[in-house]
Amino acid sequence: MEKVKLLYEGKAKRVYSTDSEDQFVIEFKDTATAFDGQKKAEIPGKGEANCLISSKIFELLTIRGIKNHYIRRLSEREMLVRSLKIFPIEVIIRNRVAGSMAKRLGLEEGKMLERPVVEFCYKSDELHDPMINEDHILALGLATESELSTIKEMALKTNEILIEFFRQCNLDLIDMKFEFGKDSQGEVYLADEISPDTCRLWELGTTTSWDKDRFRRDLGGVEEAYKEVKERVMSTPIESKARILIRLKPGILDAQGSVILNALRSLGFTEVLEVRTGKLLELKLDRKIDEPERIERMCKELLANPVMENYQWEWEE
Ligand code: 5GP
User: What confidence score (pLDDT) does residue 292 get?
Assistant: First the structure.
């Protein structure tokens, strides 16, 4: 897929048109900015880390049924996406108090929220992305009522999926910013990127930041943080396969086995003394299940007949 024309250059990404009208290429830059561009630096490896992290997360979200703009990764820092008209809204979801919420409400950072908080901001650098509410969005025609409800539902569902995924990376998902867009048919998709630039990620059980706050707050180790999150995300599986073998218990008459035995012997394979049959099931799962008891339950409650059959299972590497 060829990049045709630079359509837009943002603070951290470039967007190009392609020879296909409904596809764009996003190129991730190493540039980091904060405070509406007042603070700026080059962070070697950031573009590549954010591209790899975002690609893997979009693949996970596709498996879990969240429509998103990602088509495929083209290189270490480029991804092919659906061309969308982006809603001029930032959607922020918070699981713990941090950043602007802590400042605005005089709360301590790290306090767990009783339920996720959804905030909306109007995308405008000149106005410093002011917070708006759902009425503003509807009254200003920034999205329709049904688009807004879809956006909210998708954002909350994505949050649930990502909390669980990042937990497997030993990271606590504190808050995040999403952008959404719609295609020419009016279908709503999750867009932009999902990376340490757009999410707050703390080491699980601590307040250690592994995200852009290291840059915003001069905490040091910025390059290392992007690399660390990249390595954890890339080594965490988003799907897995379990192989289950079910066989009749020893001593239980295997009628199918006897038929096969007789057929083999009548063909002259007289060295065969016994045939025991069984069945092999391969389950594809949307994650590697933390509690293997779930597979055990599947076997006991449905897949194997506990009176007559034994089962064995393993993860397929
Ligand atoms: P806060 O409002 O506390 O500054 O940010 C909340 C969350 O949204 C953080 O994870 C932050 O990274 C993300 N976020 C908010 N606004 C922006 C923005 O303009 N650009 C980026 N990259 N992330 C943002």
Answer: 87
